[in-house]
Amino acid sequence: MKQAQLGDLQVGRLGLGAMGMSAAYSIGGFDDAESIRTVHRAIDLGVTLIDTAEVYGPFVNEELLARALEGRRDQVVLATKFGLISHTGRDGLDSSPASIRTAVDGSLKRLETDHIDLYYQHRLDRGTPIEDTVGALAELIAAGKIRHIGLSEVGVDTIRRAHAVHPIAAVQSEYSLWTRDQEAEILPVLRELGIGFVPYSPLGRGFLTGSIRSNAELPDTDYRKSNPRFFDGNFEHNLRSADELRAISDEVGATPAQVALAWLLAKGPDIVPIPGTKRVARLEENVGADAVELSPEQLARLDGLTPAVGGHHAEAQMAWIDR
Ligand SMILES: NC(=O)c1ccc[n+]([C@@H]2O[C@H](COP(=O)([O-])OP(=O)(O)OC[C@H]3O[C@@H](n4cnc5c(N)ncnc54)[C@H](OP(=O)(O)O)[C@@H]3O)[C@@H](O)[C@H]2O)c1
């Protein structure tokens, strides 16, 4: 696998998102044994960046990864996140230094490791100055508990303020063929500062792969039921972009998932998508994107796909996004 750079952290340019192994996407249920095989296959194929969070489950996704990484911990760059769960008794987001100090010890214990390679704030806590949050994280680096700092769904002002306190290795936010709002302002600032970018939900939560053709396929427990892009009306409109992607993929001779990922990879060597899957066959398919080359004409057509309708999160969660 070709390599990419997140600040001074080198990783395989395709990572693996582990969230769906324990939470959020319930089509087909959860199968820990297949999830563990998926992590092992990923490592065999050169994936190094593995992404989780304390809130996935909550907690059980980190525990699952500990089982999957037994004897292989040194082969991966392990990323987890704090901030959606308060450890100080507050309601809502909590990135106070006291909450972070408790959160990190919990993640280390569940992950059965002595350090986290990349530790992200999951969402900006408007009640805690970002300088205080990053200051606490810098102390964790000094203590050897974490190696690099990341932020998620933050705006330009927060990125600059945070980076002034301690270098930020990566920003992780939603970015895909149907969520493009990182392009205008965020990516140029990250490049100016030498910060890498990790697109989450790079397959549009599975939608872009064309594998979900009707929102009636989603069980009530599936997170996507509450995502406006999957609502009646929006879903049918959005099928146009999945169909356009399929037509281009047929020409390329690759699958829609591979072309969606190759389009992101073509944006630069500082971009590391983390497609999520809990199945070996899909992991193998997704890693195949490393070998897909798109022509300038194909990239331009992909840039011009019919835009999605509907917010990329439910309204309450959109309010947590810092712009
Ligand atoms: N920072 C944040 O706030 C944030 C938010 C969301 C996600 N994330 C991270 O980003 C990772 C990836 O995002 P995501 O999981 O939300 O969305 P995604 O990667 O866009 O899509 C995942 C979905 O697509 C399906 N899928 C994967 N490969 C496929 C293929 N080749 N063909 C057909 N379907 C395929 C998966 O199903 P199966 O699993 O059944 O294969 C799953 O339902 C997460 O795992 C998580 O670690 C972070």
Automatic annotation (TrEMBL):
Domain NADP-dependent oxidoreductase: 13-305
GO cellular component: cytoplasm
Keyword presence, Manganese: no
Keywords for this protein: Oxidoreductase
InterPro entries (UniProt xref): AKR (IPR020471), Aldo-Keto_reductase (IPR050791), NAD(P)_OxRdtase_dom_sf (IPR036812), NADP_OxRdtase_dom (IPR023210)
One protein family per Pfam: Aldo_ket_red
Name of the protein this chain belongs to: Predicted oxidoreductase (Related to aryl-alcohol dehydrogenase)
Keyword Oxidoreductase: yes
Alphabetized GO MF terms: oxidoreductase activity
